Amino acid sequence: MTASINDVAHAVGVSASTVSRALRGRPGVSDEVRDRIAAVAAQLGYTASRSASSLASGRTYTIGVLVPYVGRWFFGTVLDAAEQVFSTAGYDVLLYNLGSPETRKRFFTKLPVRKRVDAVLSLLIPDDEESAALRSLGVPLATTVGGARPGFTVVGIDDRVGTESAVRHLVNLGHRRIGMISGASGPLHWTTPIERRNAYLNVLAEAGIEHDPALEADGDYTVEGGERAMTELLAASRPPTAVFAQSDEMAMGALRALRRHRLKAPDDVSVVGFDDHELADVVGLTTVAQPVAEQGAEAARLLLRRLDEPDAEPPGHVQMPIRLVLRETTAPPRPRGPQ
Questions:
Q1: Which of 98, 99, 138 is nearest to 120 (CA)?
Q2: DSSP category for residue 63
Q3: What's the pLDDT at 179?
Q4: CA 16 to CA 38: how far, in whole Å?
Q5: What is the CA radius of gyration of the chain?
Q6: Which tens digits make up the pLDDT trace of 170-212?
């Protein structure tokens, strides 16, 4: 005969609900008891039934995740970290890749996640109408992008502070011709490029540096885009001596463009990125480090906590720490003409 949850509970000397919480990774069970339950369950050959648990709890044990670009490093890193947390807790992930306007419109018109998920992690920024549609699902909502939003728990960083630290670093080194590679053509409703551009302009103004539109170029948040953007900046009548790239991938593209023009960072142009990509240290990139994976994991944990404690007041905004990491791609400008 197949062992039941009651058999495991009787053998360990706990209630069936405790066995269920332990095997689902839910809180309220000590590590010692959890280990004993897992050992006895394995010994008896007991496996929790997903269908039975769903019927008993009314849950689907599925989390919906919305992404604009599943293949991009940032979104993939957040997704991977969140999925690990969900999987450990016994939840599956239902992924929706909404990169095109048509796919996105179809999703929010039909809302295929209704009654199929227990919570939604959105890695895209919904407009007011889309936000209202997600709130109508009546499930916990979280995101790792954008600012505060009614009905959502937001886990993120301060883009303004991060950008200011990067651009001020270049100013303090003595640079006056500071360019920027942005991601203006990023995902729909994306606020990050705007926040970072405003911070860039604020630091220039604070330092008494006149803004030159010719020192801005769109890098599309990709390596290839960063290379194109740096090539464009180098073609300016007065090219920059330093460049702030709004992402490390664009910064890496910028470094590749410098190599192809037989230039070096920081000898010819200093380069600062943003993210602390896993390859940033390999290429010696000075960058603003943000905990990308930790943001995904924390958002996932908060969603699960909402499911376990539905009456608790959810946090509206959780701000993660960031820091400027100094490596080999920044230095004072060479004394060669106007800077």
A1: 138
A2: E
A3: 98
A4: 13
A5: 24
A6: 999 999 999 999 987 655 567 888 899 999 999 999 999 999 9
Torsion of CA 227, 232, 237, 240, to 10 degrees: -40
The total of other beta-carbon atoms located within 10 Å of residue 11's CB is 18
Read off φ and ψ for residue 274, nearest 5 degrees.
-150, 125
CA distance 324 to 272: 10
In whole angstroms, give the CA distance from residue 328 to residue 50.
52
d(C-alpha 248, C-alpha 279), whole Å: 9
- Name residue 141's beta-bridge partners: 120, 152
Report the 10 Å Cβ neighbour count for 199.
Answer: 22
What confidence score (pLDDT) does residue 338 get?
46
Cis peptide, bond prior to residue 333, ω within 30 of zero: no
Could you tell me which of 135, 189, 157 has the C-alpha nearest to residue 314? 135
Tokens coding 1: 């005969």
Distance CA 192, CA 229 (A): 18
